[in-house]
């Protein structure tokens, strides 16, 4: 007999049987009494058979007929079952204790370290981290300003490169080899007391090594998640999420102290992250990444230096891990320590080698001085916030080669601006809100109903996309109606793309120059800062679901190295031709070199968070006599006066889409210098786009006037408390 089937039937029928006085009333009628007696008979028979199943219950007696005895029998049977469950759980725990750890370790070795763990509570909420994502330039409030008030003065400007070059006789230098990692005192700093003790120890040493771990995928500007510091005798890891507000006050002075050497590797990003998050400005830094370039080593990554100088094989699988994770596993702490533990020893060996080269290269530039000069230039960078301008969408990687018309370009602009607004308001990474590849695909197909959009994005793991399908469709429909404003930009993009395929780039004076392939002198590879990492050959380093890894930690292993904003003045790697399939990859590389007078040129969109240019880069020629920088004509494009600005009013009001028309004065201004007016809270809202469902006509777009103001999740930046 199928016990489960009959029990289900009995359970389903029992609520239909009357109870109490109603039962006794109906029981007097034959039509009711007979089925009830049949149910009772079948139930008793089933219980008897269950009770007789000794192999199940361990009880040989039949199920008692008396109600009280039956109740006691069931209680005892349940106790037996629970005891059996307890025994099985204990056995499972014993097996887990003996074999589980080994299995878990093996599984951990085989599984890829996730770059994003969605279940982690955002540190901005967990630790009350206040961020300012307003579409206004970053203020270096701790720095003095120039006499004309136009720029901030870095503390290094009052010092010379020669102030930091080693004064002692390096011939007598004996490298100090560090003890084994397991034998070195280590402290995890998670409280202000530990931070104070660390500051006191650093004040007694002459040099220390520094590195940072960073997360950019779940924050608009990025968050420094960890700071590693090593002296000659100790290792420290600072949880910069937990003590964020205290790092600057306690460590600012020692980092600024020009008498203390700070040793870092590939510090281009670390320098500006320290400024942004802690107000720390580094003076007197030795960059082992720059030293490896001057020494012309086989590779320039920290992984290579550890193997080459120390015989250490570094485990770099955690370089793109989600460093927001708390508590940090031991394996991640070890990875962090390895980045600084051996760095002072490498620094010693490199200085000796550089000094030897200096003696052998009479009449040439001093290699040791050159390293300090490059390190000085890296420190001189000042953090610049990524600002939304009228032409920001032109920085989208892959846009130039997409061949979009004016309608499609208008869609790109609308989606870019919508994404920027949400990312700023909710302090999310742009790639988390809406990845670049999805922007391009939506613009390519221009879906005007939700079902068509769903076919493009699928059932994505992007929460902002999932809950904003109707809003995105409205952006597409409205943008298509404003295509006239983008005709000039679309034409210019096509001209630029055609010129790049011909291996020439039009410049401002109307002439053409050969296309130059440039990249990171360290690795020949770069990081494109939104969705896709590519190397100098155009090969994708991170793609598909892993594209957001570009937002993570600055790569130290040379496989996805972030391009330096202070490349050596003598580094221009030219190539006579670039294959068509790699042309766009080469074009996204933002070259920063030096003028004839040694002044560092900076990217117009900022040193850190600005997306790298996706259009052609004209060749920069190092000519001390002319000191001429050829300009990119595309940067002169400005949309016409009817260019709309699109923002979501509120996450809870997805049926409304604010449409704002920037002022003429704003549009005529320099887009690289003046942010879009629609990004501040004083904006005037002039229209609402209603949600269009799948049942609506694809050609219908309804606009309604409204004087509503932005809601909580609008573009008005919020401070988290």
UniProtKB/TrEMBL annotation:
- Could you give a GO molecular-function term held by this entry? 3'-5'-RNA exonuclease activity
Q: Which PROSITE patterns match?
A: HRDC
Query: Which Pfam families is this protein grouped with?
Result: DNA_pol_A_exo1, HRDC, PMC2NT
Compartments (UniProt record):
Nucleus
List the InterPro entries: 3'-5'_exonuclease_dom (IPR002562), Exosome-assoc_fac_Rrp6_N (IPR012588), HRDC-like_sf (IPR010997), HRDC_dom (IPR002121), HRDC_dom_sf (IPR044876), RNaseH-like_sf (IPR012337), RNaseH_sf (IPR036397), Rrp6-like (IPR045092)
Entry GO terms, CC: nuclear exosome (RNase complex); nucleolus
Q: Which UniProt keywords apply?
A: Exosome, Nucleus, RNA-mediated gene silencing, rRNA processing
A single GO BP: TRAMP-dependent tRNA surveillance pathway
* Record-stated family: Belongs to the exosome component 10/RRP6 family.
Q: Show the PANTHER family listed in the entry.
A: 3'-5' EXONUCLEASE, POLYMYOSITIS/SCLERODERMA AUTOANTIGEN-RELATED
Q: What is this protein called?
A: HRDC domain-containing protein
């Amino acid at each position: 007999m199928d016990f489960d089937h009959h029990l289900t039937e009995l359970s389903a029928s029992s609520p239909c049987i009357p109870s109490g006085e109603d039962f006794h009333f109906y029981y007097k009628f034959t039509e009711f009494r007979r089925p009830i007696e049949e149910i009772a008979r079948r139930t008793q028979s089933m219980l008897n058979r269950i009770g007789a199943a000794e192999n199940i219950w361990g009880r040989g007696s039949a199920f008692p007929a008396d109600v009280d005895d039956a109740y006691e029998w069931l209680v005892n049977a349940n106790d037996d079952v629970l005891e059996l469950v307890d025994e099985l759980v204990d056995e499972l725990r014993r097996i887990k204790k003996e074999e589980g750890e080994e299995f878990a370790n093996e599984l951990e070795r085989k599984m890829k370290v996730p770059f994003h763990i969605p279940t982690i509570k955002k540190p901005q909420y967990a630790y009350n981290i206040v961020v300012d994502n307003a579409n206004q330039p970053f203020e270096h409030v701790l720095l003095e300003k120039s006499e004309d008030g136009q720029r901030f003065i870095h503390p290094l400007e009052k010092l010379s490169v020669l102030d930091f070059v080693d004064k002692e006789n390096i011939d007598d230098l004996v490298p100090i080899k560090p003890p084994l990692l397991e034998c070195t005192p280590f402290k995890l700093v998670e409280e202000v007391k530990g931070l104070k003790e660390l500051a006191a120890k650093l004040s007694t040493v002459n040099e220390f090594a520094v590195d940072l771990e960073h997360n950019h995928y779940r924050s608009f500007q990025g968050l420094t998640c960890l700071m590693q510091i090593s002296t000659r005798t100790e290792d420290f890891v600072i949880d910069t999420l937990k003590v964020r507000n205290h790092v600057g006050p306690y460590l600012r002075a020692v980092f600024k102290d020009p008498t203390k050497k700070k040793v870092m590797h590939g510090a281009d990003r670390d320098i500006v992250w320290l400024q942004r998050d802690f107000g720390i400005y580094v003076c007197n830094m030795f960059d082992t990444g720059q030293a490896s370039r001057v020494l012309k080593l086989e590779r320039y990554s920290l992984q290579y230096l550890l193997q080459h100088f120390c015989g250490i094989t570094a485990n770099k699988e955690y370089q793109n891990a989600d460093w927001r994770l708390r508590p940090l596993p031991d394996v991640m702490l070890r990875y962090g320590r390895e980045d600084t533990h051996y760095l002072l020893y490498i620094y010693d060996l490199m200085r000796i080698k550089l000094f030897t080269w200096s003696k052998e290269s009479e009449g040439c530039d001093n290699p040791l001085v050159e390293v300090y000069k490059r390190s000085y230039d890296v420190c001189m960078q000042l953090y610049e916030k990524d600002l939304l301008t009228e032409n920001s969408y032109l920085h989208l990687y892959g846009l130039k080669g997409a061949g979009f018309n004016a309608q499609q370009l208008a869609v790109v602009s609308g989606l870019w601006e919508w994404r920027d607004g949400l990312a700023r308001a909710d302090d999310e990474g742009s790639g988390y809100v809406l990845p670049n590849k999805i922007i391009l695909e939506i613009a390519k197909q221009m879906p005007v109903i939700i079902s068509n959009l769903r076919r493009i994005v699928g059932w994505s793991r992007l929460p902002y996309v999932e809950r904003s399908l109707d809003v995105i469709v409205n952006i597409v429909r409205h943008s298509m109606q404003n295509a006239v404003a983008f005709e000039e930009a679309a034409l210019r993009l096509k001209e630029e793309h055609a010129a790049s395929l011909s291996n020439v780039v039009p410049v401002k004076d109307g002439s053409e120059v050969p296309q130059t392939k440039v990249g990171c002198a360290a690795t020949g590879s770069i990081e494109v800062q939104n969705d896709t990492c590519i190397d100098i050959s155009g090969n994708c380093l991170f793609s598909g679901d892993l594209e957001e890894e570009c937002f993570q930690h600055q790569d130290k292993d040379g496989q996805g190295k972030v391009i330096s904003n202070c490349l050596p003045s003598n580094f221009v790697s030219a190539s006579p031709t670039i294959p068509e399939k790699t042309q766009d990859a080469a074009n996204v590389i933002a070259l920063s070199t030096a003028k004839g007078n040694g002044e560092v040129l900076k990217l117009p969109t900022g040193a850190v968070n600005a997306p790298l240019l996706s259009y052609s880069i004209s060749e920069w020629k190092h000519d001390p006599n002319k000191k001429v920088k050829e300009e990119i004509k595309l940067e002169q494009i400005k949309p016409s006066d009817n260019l709309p600005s699109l923002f979501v009013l509120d996450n809870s009001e997805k049926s409304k889409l604010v449409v704002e028309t920037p002022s003429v004065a704003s549009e005529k201004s320099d887009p690289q210098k003046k942010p879009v007016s629609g990004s501040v809270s004083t904006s005037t809202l002039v229209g609402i786009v209603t949600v269009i469902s799948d049942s609506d006509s694809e050609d219908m777009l309804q606009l309604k006037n409204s004087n509503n103001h932005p809601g909580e999740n609008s573009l008005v930046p919020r401070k988290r408390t």
